[in-house]
UniProtKB/TrEMBL annotation:
It is a multi-pass membrane protein. Residues 11-284 form the HTTM-like domain. This is HTTM-like domain-containing protein. The chain crosses the membrane at residues 20-36, 73-96, 156-180, 217-239, 246-271. It is found in: Endomembrane system. Keywords: Membrane, Transmembrane, Transmembrane helix. The keyword Transmembrane applies.
């Protein structure tokens, strides 16, 4: 029995240096996400944008969630919250006050996501879960400014209930993704990748090159499905753990790089690549440490000098020192392990509840915790089937002189022909996701606000001719089997006009 227990522990034992890389990668992705989101600060997060606060509260608000970003519809308040989030994300990368930086980054991230659920995608669920589990992980123990005040750990090996939760969470992402893909096009017909690459709204250049290869796409469909379904089992093998983890990380890196080169998925691939850094084995980390250590020491020295220069002017410095007795420390650790174990059971149940095959459904009164702390998750990427409805937007503005201009193409004359690159019409993946949600009938409430937002920003430029009407038109193009496409159908989703001047 004593020999069996260490073997069962092997799949869940992580390296402190790998956890530090997980922290750095997660913080870097949060920073990148903030930079991209900040380019649409007014459009996506203020009352002058596409989702004013009163509309959010009326149509898209969950009473169990909270958001600091809903405290005001002014861009100045949003900019302040963005700046605070960027500072805490930078502190997370550097490992300064790591536990606090993790908690505040998580709090501000879910606050930001709750402010505009119309632009949230699957990768956002994983990003907030990395921060959630990161609060319990010792990912600031090494490669951090905090670690400069501590002795080097006697061993880099670390095992606890939270490492179990981290590994299980990664497995759930891919298992649930595969199990939710229950349409024949994934497991029988092999046509799912064909339909995915038929979506011009997300098609990248490499995907365009692969698209004519029907047999290759069929093989890639089965490869994708069975990779997601079977690969996570490698994480739980109790022998030769190093090699199985290297295989898992290597396959997923190739998998997500391939997705990013063929489909426009925003930060989805970077989030997934950062999420597996905590699995890196010691053999890889020893080589990485030899390259990283001198560079980290140089950066830490510079950061320490900078930190001393700005901390001195703070009016108050608070230092709290708590002395823990051995019995209290053991009790606290046992309580933490029990809490993490209960959280893991809850999250596993939530994931199983998303599967149509699962019978023991979670009752609605039990969901408040998941919504409040945003551990709710659903990994339904291209599931149960790939969308067949494709197309492109025409923002048909009619000038006072009767001309028709396409605001989606910088005011050029309206053309009914498909653009050479539909994906190029989107500023970033957040706008692509918003446009996808714009099509759903259930979201029809959002259409006039987008239309009026477009009119307002158009008229802010005095060089633009005034418009008397704007139509948001969708050229719907349904993908058929065997490289056939239905003729595009013009659908007017919304019509609006400028408010009359007094």
């Amino acid at each position: 029995m004593r020999r069996l227990l260490p073997a069962l522990q092997n799949p869940f034992e992580l390296d402190l240096r790998a956890l530090a890389l997980l922290r750095i990668g997660t913080g870097a992705v949060v920073l990148t996400d903030l930079i991209i989101r900040s380019t649409d600060l007014v459009a996506h997060y203020t009352n002058l944008g596409v989702l004013p606060l009163h509309v959010l509260y009326q149509y898209g608000w969950n009473p169990y969630v909270f958001s600091l970003h809903t405290s005001s519809g002014l861009w100045q308040v949003q900019a302040l919250l963005f700046a605070l989030a960027a500072l805490t994300a930078a502190a997370l990368v550097l490992g300064y006050k790591t536990r606090w930086a993790t908690a505040i980054s998580w709090l501000l991230l879910i606050s930001l996501q709750n402010r505009n659920p119309l632009i949230v995608q699957g990768g956002d669920d994983l990003l907030r879960m990395l921060l959630f589990w990161g609060f319990f992980l010792p990912w600031g123990r090494v490669y951090s400014l905090d670690s400069r005040k501590q002795a080097a750990p006697g061993s880099y090996r670390y095992f606890s209930m939270v490492t179990v939760a981290y590994v299980v969470q990664l497995a759930l992402v891919y298992w649930c993704t595969a199990l939710l893909k229950n349409s024949p096009e994934w497991s029988q017909d092999g046509t799912a990748i064909y339909y995915a690459l038929s979506l011009d709204q997300i098609l990248m250049p490499l995907g365009r090159l692969l698209y004519p290869q029907a047999e290759l796409l069929r093989g890639l469909t089965f490869l994708t499905y069975y990779t997601e379904l079977l690969l996570p089992f490698l994480l739980f093998l109790p022998f030769r753990t190093t090699w199985w983890r290297l295989l898992f990380v290597g396959v997923l890196y190739a998998f997500h790089l391939g997705i990013s080169l063929t489909l426009f998925v925003g930060l989805f691939y970077l989030i997934n690549m950062a999420s597996v850094l905590g699995l890196l084995p010691a053999q890889v980390l020893y080589k990485l440490a030899a390259w990283l250590h001198p560079r980290w020491a140089q950066l830490a020295a510079r950061t320490h000098t900078w930190r001393r220069s700005w901390v001195t002017w703070l009016p108050v410095r608070i230092n709290v020192h708590v002395q823990w007795y051995p019995g209290s420390r053991r009790l606290l650790r046992a309580g933490r392990e029990a809490a993490v174990g209960a959280l893991l059971v809850y999250i596993c149940w939530w994931n199983l509840d998303t599967l149509p095959q699962f019978r023991w459904k979670m009752t609605e009164p039990m969901r408040w915790f998941g919504y409040m702390f945003r551990v709710d998750q659903r990994w339904g990427m291209f599931a149960p089937a790939v969308f067949k409805d494709d197309g492109w937007f025409i923002l048909d503005g009619t000038t006072t002189a009767g001309q028709h201009l396409d605001l989606n193409r910088e005011g050029q004359p309206v053309e009914a022909t498909k653009p050479a690159s539909v994906v190029a019409l989107f500023k970033n993946d957040r706008w692509r996701k918003y446009s996808e949600n714009y099509l759903f009938v259930a979201n029809s409430y959002m259409r006039p606000y987008y239309c009026n937002y477009l009119l307002r920003i158009w008229h802010e430029n005095p060089a633009h001719p005034p418009l008397r009407q704007l139509e948001v038109v969708y050229m719907k193009e349904v993908t058929l089997p065997n490289y056939r496409v239905a003729p595009p159908v013009r659908e007017v989703l919304c019509t609006c006009a400028p408010a009359p001047r007094p």
